[in-house]
Amino acid sequence: MIVIFILSGFTFAQITDIVGGINKLNALSMSSAYTIWDSTPSDKVDEIMANEEDYLDRMKSMFYQAQKSDAYFVWGYQAGFTDVSDILVEEKIANEKFFSVNNFKMSEGRSFDKDDFKSSPDDVIPIIVGYNLKDIYKLNNTYDFEIGGDSVPCKGKIIGVLEYNSSYPDLSTLGHEYSLNNSYIVPLSDSFIQNNASVPDLDMGLNSMFLFSNDEAKTASLQKYFDEQDVFSYTLVPVETAVESYIDMLRPQLLYQLFISVIILTFSIIGMISSLSLIVSKNMHDYGIHILLGAREIQIYLRIVFQVFIIILAAFIPVVFLFGISIDCILVLLLGILIGAITLVYPLYKLKKCNIIDILRKYE
Amino acid sequence: MLKIQNLTKIYGNGKENRVQALNKINLTIDSGEMVALVGTSGSGKSTLLNILGLLDVQTSGDYFIDNISVKNISEKQKAILRNKKFGFVMQDFALIEKYTVRQNLEIPFVYLKEKVSKQERSKIINSLLSSLGISDKKDVYTNKLSGGQRQRVAIARALVNNPDIILADEPTGALDSKNTLETMKILSKLNQTGKTIIIVTHDSKVAKCCNKIYTMEDGMLI
Ligand SMILES: Nc1ncnc2c1ncn2[C@@H]1O[C@H](COP(=O)(O)OP(=O)(O)OP(=O)(O)O)[C@@H](O)[C@H]1O
Ligand SMILES: [Mg+2]
Q: Considering the entire predicted model, what is its pTM?
């Protein structure tokens, strides 16, 4: 019983996850996606690189503007080989939007939350590592990192390990995926942009940008903003087909997971109803004896109601411990009450319909 | 005190599974009688006893308990009568196996309207058990008892609330002749203290112990 409850708790958590994922996909497929096409002439690039300080503030404001337009960024650097197992480690810098679009699953620990994107390189920053790095950067331990193009030294604490073969799609190239097995991911914060980012950092970031939007005026105004800054020649170009095909690939996977979860849930409901019914019918003969000796049917029925709900509540307590007071936990409780109510129809029918002799005889 | 008029009981409603278990029975049982109901298997003895004990209801006809028609008795009052007025000894004993002897005997107290103190309950239970010779089994689970011992527990439980009428359906059906004799001695003794006793039985020796014998056939008294 308890096991079934916990199982359905997990299943609920999964279903809410999957439905969330499907909703997100639908939202994405409704909107157009844009990426940046960089057509800066080489003499302009040389000029910018020679006078970085002049351009840095403008680059930052362009980056902020793009962040504000709800764009996602992920870009990376090679962080060198590990001593232990000769893996070429990559550093990825990604913003919050990137994580909300790509629903990464963790094999250990947790994913980033809102506050993680507000950390500063002066503090200990939270870091998620790819699966192959889990023995080098151990969960909950703190290590020295050097982040960004300028190798800003900082301390990072490992908060999560990605599932094996986690990857994200290159939305501008059909079917291409970047694996994150050998990467560690740093959450992109305003503080990093403000204090630690260089022009090449920001250029890499902006080139990695993806923008999902329905609002043509908004994209047009972002384009206009880019043009006015007179730095790199960035053009927002739509990338419909790649996004569509990515969504078409993800959707059946999610639907399949949903299907499996619903089946598990159905079986757990059937399991719970039958085990509760078994308990009730096992006791039915004894209830008949109570009626024989002067109990009223209503007293017996209330007793059954009480027993069934005590069992359900007892089974529910571990769910609260596991999930806390969450929406899944409330759903499990509602499910439990529903199951209790369904279970109780049968003894109500028996007590109303059968006389005492039938009850005594049938359940010997 | 118990009076039956034109009592008919029909089980089932379709044409095929319709069984007329009782057919226009008339019967009066007075206070203090010890009555045997005999008859072939399927003649309707248990059906009659169950209706007498308010465990079942007739299809037509009337049944009066102390001149009150059962049609005018509410479910709540029927439960009270089952608790106080009648004591049941069922053929299969109807004991709760996961309870001890004492716990089984406590059940009639639970549904008694007037509360009985713990000491009083203990006293009643102890004296019943010792008069039936099973005091030593008080804390034994009933599934560990022999047939004869269970029989005595069932009789003891029927007597807990000091009922006027004891209804026994084949009380000796599962017992050997020695235990049968013992049980009949107990029931006769109870009859001598003024209790009305109605016994359904196949055993002519058992029937002979009673003051009156009614024979049933095909749902009728003959
Ligand atoms: N719940 C029921 N539903 C349908 N028919 C029933 C039911 N109970 C009894 N009967 C039928 O009513 C008739 C009388 O049954 P009853 O149990 O009263 O007989 P009996 O005289 O007690 O028999 P036995 O000596 O075998 O116990 C039988 O034909 C039986 O099949
Ligand atoms: Mg019978």
A: 0.69
